[in-house]
C-alpha cells in the first residue's frame, strides 16, 4: 500500500508539472511572442520615422526661402474695402525694412483672400484682383520705406492657398493675408 501511495504521489506530481508547463506555454510564451512582435514593429516604425525625417531634411535644405512673414488684413489695412495701409500696418512693415535690406534676393509680396464673396470683394471683378491690390498696397508702402522696387515681386494668389480650411469659423479673417517672403533666385 505504501508503494501504491508513493507511485500515486509521483503521478500526481508529474501531472502537476505537465499542467504547469502547459500553462507556461499557452499563457507566458504567447505574451513573450507578442512582446517580441511589438518590439519588431516599434523598430520598423522608428526606422520609418528616421527615413521620413531624413527625407524632410533633404527637401528643406534645398529650399530657396530666406525668411517669410505673414500679416492679416486687419493688421495692415484700415479696412479691407479701402486697402489703405494703416499707421500700425506701416509700423509693422517698417520693422521689416532692415531685415529686407540686409538680405539679397527677390521679395515676394503675396496677397491672399477668402473664397466667400464678401462686400469688400464687390469692388473687384475677382479675388485675383483683390489679392493683387492688397499685395500692391503693401509693396508700395515697402518701396516708400526704402526697399528697392526692382527687388519686389507682387503676386495675387486669390483663395488658392488658404491658411485655414474654408469651413473654419475665422476663415475669412485668417485667409485674408499678405505674405512677404524673401527668396534667393
User: In terms of structural class, how would the helical and strand content be classed?
Assistant: alpha+beta
- Report the major sheet: 4 strands, mixed
What coarse outline follows from CA principal-axis ratios? rod-shaped
Average pLDDT for all residues: 80
For the secondary structure, the number of strands is 4
Q: How large is the count of helical segments?
A: 5
Q: What is the CA-atom radius of gyration, in angstroms?
A: 34 Å
In terms of DSSP E residues, the strand content is 5-15%
Strand order of the largest sheet: 1-4-2-3
| Low-pLDDT runs | none
Ends apart, CA distance between termini: 102 Å
Q: Secondary-structure element order, as H and E?
A: HEHHEHEHE
Portion of residues within helices? 55-70%
